[in-house]
């Protein structure tokens, strides 16, 4: 860029010098033209003077003839001399170098007078020559006066033209010096200062409104360079900020990983404790289940028998949960079976009805024959955690907990929504994390277990808030099964209906 600027400066100065030399050359040409014109005029004046000199010679010859006549010379000599003078006068009449336009006519009259004297007189008397001599004197005086006037005009014009040429040349030199200093040397000095500003990081472009056209490319290139440098500086600043942001993000990710490791250690400890508790609880639960079975055989009341069946089913589910805990501690995955989603949800909501307050309504809207390959125990536990969390979030406020499920493409969507206060913004931003709960009494492990189940089967969990209030948790799982058009809707306040 600096090399280009130097080339532009050199070319600008060179072009300016050529223009100045051109003006000087033009001035010299004009001055030479004026001198040539004046020489031509002087040549004309010289011809006029020569013509006047010939007139003067004729006048002198006439005077000599007159003197000879006065001195007593013979008439033949005077006549011959007059003939010769007449011939000279005739030649002067035919010449074109006279300055007075009346000269030819006067000379013709003088020639006629001389011819008359020669023709009529055999001897010239002196008194006869005075008219001719006076006529020639008048012609000579007129020519000399005109020649002097023309010569004076030529001298005045020459002086005027010379003064004008010298003044023009001086004006051109002064103007060239002023332009060179004001429009070239001054801006080039300013350009040097501007280049010094660039070294200090000042990338402000300059105005090119009043610059000389010869310097406009130089400062236009400077402005382009300044704008490009400004863009590069901005890019470097943004790159530095981006690097700082990446460093901060990496540091935050590292801290998050450290916190995740700490949570994993705590979860591992909780898992070991849960496994040990599950191992110790299986035997008492087996005894309780056997006692309930024996008691069921002894009771004939249908209502009591139904409740004992529910208790037995829950005891069996607890036993399966304890076995699952032990299997998880052994890292043994639970096998997937074909589940009828509507039936599983109905059974779970019927059982949960006795665990939540009466002012809460449980509803479901699930296609009747929707089925999917899922681990039954883990699916039931995840759904139970979601329903109980929704009921706990609503507290003493009357409302509805609704379970919906549907299939879309290769994905199963199961949604549990409530009409409580919803999730906090911190939880929505941070996602599901262990030991982080929106409830003061919660442990933060329920949603973590649901998320673990979803990830285990290749799915994930989405949490969101409803409008105007309420929370919504959606299980998004891989789907395998067939979907029929019948839709089963259940209201666990005493009504079962089918919707088509």
Automatic annotation (TrEMBL):
<feature type="domain" description="HAMP">
    <location>
        <begin position="182"/>
        <end position="234"/>
    </location>
</feature>
<feature type="transmembrane region" description="Helical">
    <location>
        <begin position="15"/>
        <end position="36"/>
    </location>
</feature>
<keyword id="KW-0812">Transmembrane</keyword>
<keyword id="KW-0808">Transferase</keyword>
<keyword id="KW-0418">Kinase</keyword>
<dbReference type="InterPro" id="IPR004358">
    <property type="entry name" value="Sig_transdc_His_kin-like_C"/>
</dbReference>
<feature type="domain" description="Histidine kinase">
    <location>
        <begin position="276"/>
        <end position="481"/>
    </location>
</feature>
<protein>
    <recommendedName>
        <fullName>histidine kinase</fullName>
        <ecNumber>2.7.13.3</ecNumber>
    </recommendedName>
</protein>
<dbReference type="InterPro" id="IPR036890">
    <property type="entry name" value="HATPase_C_sf"/>
</dbReference>
<dbReference type="GO" id="GO:0016020">
    <property type="term" value="C:membrane"/>
</dbReference>
<dbReference type="InterPro" id="IPR003661">
    <property type="entry name" value="HisK_dim/P_dom"/>
</dbReference>
<dbReference type="Pfam" id="PF02518">
    <property type="entry name" value="HATPase_c"/>
</dbReference>
<keyword id="KW-0067">ATP-binding</keyword>
<keyword id="KW-1133">Transmembrane helix</keyword>
<dbReference type="Pfam" id="PF00512">
    <property type="entry name" value="HisKA"/>
</dbReference>
<dbReference type="GO" id="GO:0005524">
    <property type="term" value="F:ATP binding"/>
</dbReference>
<keyword id="KW-0597">Phosphoprotein</keyword>
<keyword id="KW-0472">Membrane</keyword>
<dbReference type="InterPro" id="IPR005467">
    <property type="entry name" value="His_kinase_dom"/>
</dbReference>
<dbReference type="GO" id="GO:0000155">
    <property type="term" value="F:phosphorelay sensor kinase activity"/>
</dbReference>
<keyword id="KW-0547">Nucleotide-binding</keyword>
<keyword id="KW-0902">Two-component regulatory system</keyword>
<dbReference type="InterPro" id="IPR036097">
    <property type="entry name" value="HisK_dim/P_sf"/>
</dbReference>
<dbReference type="InterPro" id="IPR003594">
    <property type="entry name" value="HATPase_dom"/>
</dbReference>
<dbReference type="InterPro" id="IPR003660">
    <property type="entry name" value="HAMP_dom"/>
</dbReference>
């Amino acid at each position: 860029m600096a090399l280009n600027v130097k080339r532009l400066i050199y070319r600008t100065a060179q072009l300016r010098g050529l223009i100045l030399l051109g003006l000087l050359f033009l001035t010299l040409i004009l001055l030479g033209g004026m001198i040539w014109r004046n020489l031509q005029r002087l040549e004309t004046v010289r011809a006029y003077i020569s013509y006047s000199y010939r007139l003067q010679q004729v006048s002198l010859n006439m005077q000599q003839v007159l003197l000879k006549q006065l001195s007593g010379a013979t008439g033949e000599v005077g006549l011959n001399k007059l003939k010769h003078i007449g011939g000279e006068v005739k030649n002067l009449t035919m010449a074109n170098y006279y300055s007075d336009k009346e000269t030819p006519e006067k000379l013709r009259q003088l020639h006629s007078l001389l011819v008359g004297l020669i023709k009529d007189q055999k001897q010239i008397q002196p008194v006869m020559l005075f008219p001719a001599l006076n006529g020639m004197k008048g012609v000579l005086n007129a020519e000399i006066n005109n020649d002097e006037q023309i010569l004076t005009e030529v001298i005045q014009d020459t002086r005027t033209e010379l003064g004008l040429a010298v003044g023009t040349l001086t004006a051109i030199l002064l103007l060239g010096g002023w332009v060179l200093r004001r429009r070239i040397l001054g801006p080039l000095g300013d350009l040097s200062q501007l280049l010094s500003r660039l070294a200090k990081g000042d990338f402000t472009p300059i105005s090119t409104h009043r610059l000389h056209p010869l310097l406009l490319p130089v400062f236009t290139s400077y402005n382009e360079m300044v704008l490009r440098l400004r863009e590069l500086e901005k890019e470097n600043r943004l790159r530095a900020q981006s690097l700082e942001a990446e460093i901060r993000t990496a540091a935050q990710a590292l801290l998050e990983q450290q916190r995740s490791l700490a949570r994993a250690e705590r979860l591992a400890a909780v898992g070991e404790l849960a496994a040990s508790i599950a191992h110790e609880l299986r035997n008492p639960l087996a005894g309780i289940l056997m006692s309930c079975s024996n008691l069921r055989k002894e009771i004939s009341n249908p209502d009591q028998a139904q409740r004992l069946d529910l208790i037995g089913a829950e005891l069996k589910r607890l036993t399966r949960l304890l076995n699952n805990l032990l299997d998880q501690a052994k890292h043994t995955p639970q096998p997937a079976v074909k589940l009828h989603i509507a039936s599983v949800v109905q059974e779970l909501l019927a059982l949960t009805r006795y665990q939540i307050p009466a002012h809460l309504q449980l509803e479901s809207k699930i296609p009747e024959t929707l089925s999917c390959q899922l681990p039954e125990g883990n699916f039931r536990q995840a759904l139970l955690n979601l329903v109980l969390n929704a009921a706990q979030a609503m507290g003493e406020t009357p409302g509805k907990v609704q379970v919906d499920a549907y299939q879309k493409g290769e994905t199963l969507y199961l949604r549990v929504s409530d009409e409580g206060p919803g999730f906090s913004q911190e939880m929505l931003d941070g996602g599901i994390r262990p030991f982080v709960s929106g409830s003061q009494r919660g442990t933060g492990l329920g949603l973590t277990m649901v998320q673990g189940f979803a990830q285990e089967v290749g799915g994930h969990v989405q949490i969101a808030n409803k409008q105007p209030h309420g929370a919504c948790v959606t299980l998004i799982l891989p789907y395998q099964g067939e979907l029929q058009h019948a839709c089963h809707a259940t209201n666990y306040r005493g009504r079962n209906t089918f919707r088509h």
